[in-house]
Specification:
Blueprint lengths: L5 H8 L5 E7 L6 E7 L6 H18 L3 H17 L7 H13 L13 H10 L4 H11 L15 H18 L3 H19 L4 H5 L19 E5 L2 E7 L5 E9 L8 H10 L10 H11 L2 E10 L6 E12 L3 H14 L5 H21 L1 H11 L3 H10 L1 H12 L1 H19 L5 E7 L4 H12 L23 E5 L5 E7 L10 H11 L1 H9 L4 E6 L4 E7 L5 H8 L1 H6 L5 H15 L5 H14 L3 H12 L3 H6 L1 H8 L3 E7 H6 L6 E4 L3
Parallel strand pairs: 4-8, 9-13, 9-14
Antiparallel strand pairs: 1-2, 3-4, 5-7, 5-8, 6-7, 10-12, 10-13, 11-12
């Protein structure tokens, strides 16, 4: 799956799919390895099989690129040694790793946890034909394989719905009146059971904490503002077990209006094109061999006082402290030396981005609907939607539809954006490491300052500023379920953020929304959020309903206004809210948390105030939060992604209904 991997590249060169990748599922008794070509044509089946065999046989005969093997092993060894599982507790993740082997062999519970020896052995085996023999045995000579083709069929959902309706109708016609009545009674009994609260006796069997057990003090953070030449350096003196975490932050306050959407493309292709000194495959191998990974991304932050917001281009790298010079060199290579007019490769990357973005927009339909709904009323959300969501997908789609006529202009725009963004005067450095690593960082920053772009650029176009419009869209897909979002803003109605909203969010997740949208309504999930910037939302996940779910949202304020939970119930909600604040943080996460506070102007006093408000939440305070729900619901921002028939049935809910993917 690495950029330029021989089999992947051969498939792409032959036009077999727009995105090609592999999957290895090792956590089961019978592991399997798959090669997947997305958006391939059915008639390419034999060519797919022939290419698969041809390329792998060549790899066995000529040998796998040793540099690529070392790079892949180093990539996974770095992740293993770093053991950064994000917000998930290490104990939980280690336990799951143990089960991958322990479930199938009682004598080997630790082989995936104590893996240092494994990685050392794999590095030694690179010098042999071990990996080539694995390909021969398991991917070429193995007779236990299958070819699976998933082919879309227009109208299939409607056909299946009709078949199910006819089947149920035929069954209903065979029932007597007594049998029909029994089904009605059983359904009523099920609904009553779903609405019934657990008994006090049952609840008492669950161990639980008290408010007195919770830490009252907010988590501290460390920010040290330094200066290296003309560059601001934000330093976090944290023990990192020999790893450095650097983030280069470039402000994008002055991106021209017409060019801003192309920043979304830019972040997806930097580092994946040939440069003056490397092919993109060789560059990927260098990055994986000499660092723990380098990534380009776009973020935004909103000042705590809501006075302004800013988009940034961020470059992240992690590395052994002794390799800091390599990290800076490998970041600068694609920034300064990319060959932007490699039109063949640029098209491959656009097709890959389109394929992956389409999958993400559907698989995380709740996030897509939520962001789109908030973008009607929020400039930061609107900008994020342009760069990362449906608007970005449609820009890529338009470029590919007319690629031959637009490819030169696209390459010119990307090159211009590079010179516009990656400039020393726009740069800030964020560094998480022990203090003794600072001298090496300063030496690299001094070199970097003089290496970034200094070209004089002229552009009279106004800078990007999104135009907000409440569109209330319904996006039609072939899905059998809906993602239903309702959003708005409570701060614009004169209400201030309070830590009690965190408790309210937990309450909704385990009580009102859970019971009504998931348990009774049949949705797979339902979420809500109350952001410090004032935006708030309800959104369902894989929901069979649409208008029924919106009705539940509209009754939420009345439910909260009449809430009468006792002290024990409130305690459990408070504990749930605190647990989200007190997630253990890795060194990288601690640095990121401190950086976020710095950029937004959030002080420790503000964080403590939020925690105090959370811990002091009572049922009376919760009832008062009904005003917040009523306030944001008044904006009536609606976005739904779902089944075409369902959306068409509810067309009065929307101002616009259209196919999500044209």
């Amino acid at each position: 799956s690495a950029p330029g991997a021989p089999l992947r590249q051969a498939m792409i060169d032959k036009g077999i799919g727009k995105d090609v990748y592999s999957v290895y599922e090792e956590g089961i008794k019978q592991p399997y390895f798959s090669v997947i070509a997305k958006n391939a044509n059915p008639e390419q089946k034999q060519e797919f099989l022939d290419t698969y065999r041809e390329v792998l046989e060549k790899q066995v005969k000529d040998g796998i690129d040793k540099k690529a093997l070392y790079a892949a092993i180093n990539h996974y060894e770095f992740r293993h040694r770093e053991a950064d599982f994000g917000r998930y507790p290490k104990g939980l993740m280690y336990g799951l790793q143990m089960l991958d082997s322990w479930l199938h062999d009682d004598t080997k519970p630790f082989i995936h946890v104590e893996a240092n020896g494994t990685y050392q052995k794999l590095k030694e085996l690179v010098k042999t034909d071990y990996f080539e023999q694995l390909i021969q045995k398991y991917l070429l000579d193995n007779t236990h394989g299958s070819i699976v083709m998933l082919t879309p069929c227009k109208g299939l959902n409607m056909k299946k719905d009709k078949e199910l309706f006819d089947k149920l109708q035929a069954y209903k016609d065979t029932l007597s009146e007594e049998e029909k009545l029994r089904i009605v009674e059983e359904t009523a009994a099920l609904k009553a059971y779903q609405e019934e609260d657990d008994s006090p006796e049952a609840l008492a069997t669950i161990p639980h904490l008290t408010i007195a057990d919770l830490k009252k003090e907010a988590e501290t953070f460390t920010n040290e503002e330094l200066c290296c030449g003309n560059t601001k350096v934000l330093f976090h003196d944290i023990f990192t077990n020999g790893i450095g975490y650097v983030k280069w932050i470039f402000k994008m306050d002055d991106i021209p209006q017409s060019l801003f959407p192309y920043v979304g493309i830019l972040k997806n292709v930097i580092g994946l094109l040939n440069t003056e000194n490397y092919t993109y495959a060789d560059l990927a191998n260098e990055v994986n061999s000499r660092t723990g990974g380098i990534g380009f991304n776009v973020n935004h932050f909103i000042k705590a006082d809501l006075s302004s917001y800013h988009f940034t281009m961020d470059v992240k790298a992690r590395f052994l402290l002794s390799n800091i010079s390599d990290a800076f060199t490998l970041v600068l290579e694609p920034v300064k030396n990319t060959k932007w007019h490699d039109y063949k490769r640029l098209k491959e990357l656009l097709e890959e981005a389109k394929s992956r973005l389409q999958s993400e927009l559907l698989s995380a339909g709740h996030s897509t609907a939520m962001l789109r709904a908030i973008s009607y009323i929020s400039e930061p959300a609107a900008g994020t939607e342009v760069l990362n969501s449906l608007s970005q997908y449609r820009l890529i789609e338009e470029l590919l539809d007319d690629y031959e006529n637009r490819k030169e202009d696209l390459a010119d725009k990307l090159e211009y954006l590079m010179k516009h963004i990656f400039r020393a005067e726009k740069m800030m450095i964020d560094y998480t490491a022990p203090r003794e690593a600072l001298d090496d960082l300063f030496a690299e920053v001094e070199k970097l300052e003089g290496s970034l772009f200094t070209d004089e650029l002229t552009n009279t176009e106004p800078v990007f500023k999104p135009v907000l419009e409440k569109k209330n869209e319904g996006f039609l897909t072939s899905s059998q379920v809906q993602y239903v979002c309702r959003a708005g803003n409570y701060i614009k109605k004169g209400l201030d953020y309070t830590g009690a909203l965190r408790v309210l969010r937990v309450m909704f997740s385990y009580d009102y929304l859970w019971n009504n949208v998931r348990v009774k309504g049949g949705a797979y999930g339902c979420m809500c959020g109350f952001l410090k910037s004032g935006e708030a939302y309800f959104v369902s996940y894989r929901d069979p309903n649409l208008e029924k779910t919106i009705e539940i949202y509209e009754k939420a304020a009345d439910y909260i206004r009449g809430y009468d939970g006792d002290e024990e119930e409130m305690t459990q909600y408070i504990i749930g809210a605190i647990s989200e604040l007190d997630v253990p943080k890795s060194p990288q996460a601690k640095g990121g948390y401190a950086l976020g506070c710095y950029l937004t102007g959030t002080t420790y006093e503000m964080i403590q105030k939020e925690r105090d408000e959370l811990l002091a939440t009572t049922a009376e305070i919760i009832r008062g939060l009904a005003d917040y729900i009523k306030a944001f619901m008044e904006d009536e921002c609606v976005c739904v992604i779902g089944k075409d028939e369902k959306i068409k049935e509810s067309k009065d809910v929307f101002k616009v209904t259209e196919q999500m993917f044209r």
